[in-house]
Amino acid sequence: MSEQLQQTETVERWGRFEFRAKGPENGNPYADVQFSARFSYKHRVVEVDGFYDGDGQYCIRFMPESLGEWSFETVSNISGLNGLKGSLNCTEPSQGNRGPVRVDNVYHFAYADGTPYFPVGTTCYVWNHQGEELEAQTLKSLSEAPFNKIRMCVFPKHYDYNHNEPETYPFAGSLDKGWDFTRFSPAFWSHLERRIDDLQKLDIEVDLILFHPYDRWGFAQMSAEADDSYLRYLLARLSSFRNVWWSLANEYDLMYEKKMQDWDRFFHIVQAHDPYQHLRSIHNWHNPERHYRSNQHWYDHGKPWVTHVSIQHPDLNFVPEWREQFKKPVVIDECRYEGNLNHGWGNITAEQMVECFWKGMAQGGYVTHGETFVHPEDIIWWSHGGKLHGESPARIRFLLDIMAEGPQLGKTAINFKWDAAAGGIDGEYYLVYFGSSRPAFRLLELPEGIRFDIDLIDTWEMTITPFEDTFEGKCRVPLPGKPYQALRIRKAD
């Protein structure tokens, strides 16, 4: 069967085209019906999986990446869904649409249009499972915050301070009667999609955590067949959202039922069924008593299907070592949280949180924020969202503005000494951060024959004070003798 269905639709580049068709509702449409499409543009063909969305609705979503006219034709084992044809015209992206984020320059990131992207993330693991009122408050807080990436889970979470039941679940069934892992709940997925779109409107990338160990519903102990089916359904529904990243797991090494070959298989499924090759990572557990110098429990981030390194570790001084080891972008997605929880990972000061950001980013890495203040109703940002209470977000915004004005940072030939975190581009730009050290001056060995302007940055007070003189070669730079100072060194015009 071959049938022309509709007039050509217009979709912006990196937007989302959606095609729906009516099909069978009997049996188990999630498992029994195969539905996909081939999208063609000149010599290029992109194969896209479809999905069943309940009520006899079969859906295909597509994110066009090339301008011009695309055609498509469906493929199905059901005659009424097979050979359906249509077309779309891909136009210039609207303002603010820069496309999905990709790896750039080995160690960094950029949007698909080439605009550099400096990830400044936060963690709200299950904010999307908290109900309309609290979720709306979270979105309001994010709209006022500096964060351009969020770590969040597909599945609900069971852990300290996390004992409420979500309103919907990803699968048909119930906790009491059991789950049918072969059937999905469209209401759950529609809600998740709405939240991803809400975040896209705020220009926030979604680092979506596909598995995690903190579970009382059985989602962390599904069979291999159920795991694979879940991943394929998720990818069919969500791959066309330009602001998604795939985090295979949070603290994958605490999911003891899964073996290393399972994680390899999951990566292969994601790679094979995501037509757009969104960013892919996996995140480790960290116990300082066991793991401070031992990374043997980590997944091998050097494997080719891992696009960037997602790390849990409190010591940002290792960033240069990890960059050199993996030759990929390094994101410290958990370095402890600003707050006052009983747990050691959740009670650092705002000063320490800001110091983590400056140390990591000055050395060419990236850092993710978290906040864990005790709350009378256990509404804690790290898991539930709601309101931000800490002092670090404003100072993280200050850092992001500085980063956005400069180049992507890397290792330099200058030794700025062990007590400073530094990076830059030799002969052009350097960013030097002194953290909790408080020198009254610093002797620098800048390149000879090049004059540099230097700004003194107070990273806590959020001030930038230019020095009147320019500097060259071996020079002495006065400092205020207080902590949390930095120098921005730029080649003079």
Task: Give the topology, please.
Elements: E1 3-4, E2 9-12, E3 17-22, H1 29-32, E4 35-41, E5 44-49, E6 51-52, E7 57-62, E8 68-76, E9 84-91, E10 101-104, E11 108-111, E12 116-117, E13 120-123, H2 132-143, E14 149-153, E15 171-174, E16 178-184, H3 186-201, E17 205-209, H4 224-238, E18 244-247, H5 260-273, E19 280-281, H6 288-291, E20 309-312, H7 319-326, E21 330-334, E22 338-339, H8 350-362, E23 366-369, E24 371-372, H9 381-384, H10 392-405, E25 421-425, E26 429-433, E27 441-445, E28 452-458, E29 463-466, E30 474-478, E31 485-491
Parallel strand pairs: 1-9, 2-9, 13-14, 13-23, 14-17, 17-18, 18-19, 20-21, 21-23, 22-24
Antiparallel strand pairs: 3-7, 4-5, 4-8, 6-7, 8-9, 10-11, 11-12, 15-16, 25-26, 26-31, 27-30, 28-29, 28-31
Helix pairs in contact: 4-5, 8-10
